[in-house]
Amino acid sequence: MKILVTGGTGFIGSHTVVELISAGHEVEILDNLSNSKESVLDAISKLTGVSPKFYKADILDKARLTEIFSGTKYDVVIHFAGLKAVAESVEQPLKYYENNVEGTINLLNAMLNTGVDNIIFSSSATVYGDPGVTAYTEDLPTGQNITSPYGKTKYMIEEILKDIAMSKPEFSATILRYFNPVGAHPSGFIGEDPNGRPNNLMPIIMKVAQGEYPELSIYGDDYPTSDGTCIRDYIHVVDLAKGHLAALQHIKPGISVYNLGSGKGTSVLEMVAAFEKASGKKLPYKIVGRRTGDLPEMHAIPEKAFRELGWKTELTIDDAMRDTINYLRALA
Question: What is the torsion angle, in degrees rounded to the nearest 10, for the CA atoms of residue 96, residue 98, residue 99 and residue 102?
Fold first, then answer.
């Protein structure tokens, strides 16, 4: 297939591009490089032997999107492009609504105006809000008690996709709700290297390990969990990328929704211990107060993805730590 990947130089996007090219698909990338680096394109080329066509463009630029879509016909768009820092979204909600929601509307208009009816959308488990359970299935209600504008933008985009599918029987939207991606490509060529101050656990651990930060702040150790720290479902980014490949092979008209997670929960302290085991070094940390909106525990029930897509995770937290350390050594 001919595929446009928006946000294709980002953490998840770049790994997905590698899997798509390796599977024989023709890939083009659109990215404004606001949270990634152009050098990722060289890494993709080294890993695959292919240099995908790259558009440095923003999904807020309607004219540029029209130009790109009028110049070629895509079979599918895989849509990663979007702002994703939860704390920043609380501080700057309009920035997130404009970029994520308006930008996606621009993208969808460009698609539909040129007869592109298939999209795979990068969503998030945040759309579930606080459902009152720790194990998440796709049939849980969404849109309730979402604690950040970031999460609300993902929910709004899902609703937009559902409305388009209601109006256009031929339209296909596969919604992939991610849990907590970690790790890096085993080659060490690509990994998570966000611009600015990261918000997610693993890139902060990486910066502590590199000496950029003095210590890791753990937000609360008094939750009702095995060790008092929050438990999340961490999924290796290569497994996550392969989930997009599986979704691509099962495109059908209408809306399809899948959780992409490991189905297992790992606490913050367990993540620290796994990193220390893989690196052979102690990771300095301190316990600080809880963050507003953090849930004690959550993990995916990924059975639907296995049943319908034939997809399941194959890599472990230990694999993710090993590959992260390989990537850190490559950065050094």
Answer: 130
The neighbour count for residue 285, using CB atoms within 10 Å, is 16
Between 25-34, 232-241, 289-298, 320-329, the lowest mean confidence (pLDDT) is in 289-298
Strand ranges (E), the chain: 2-6, 26-31, 53-56, 76-79, 118-124, 135-136, 172-178, 180-182, 216-219, 231-232, 234-236, 254-260, 266-267, 285-288, 299-300
Please give the positions annotated as active site.
150
pLDDT at 196 over 80: no
Residue 269: CB partners within 8 Å, gap ≥ 6? 218, 221, 227, 228, 229
Measuring CA to CA, which residue among 19, 27, 5 is closest to residue 78?
A: 5
Sorted by where each starts, the structural domains of the chain and their CATH numbers stand as: 2-183+234-261 (3.40.50.720)
Q: Evaluate if pTM is beyond 0.85.
A: yes
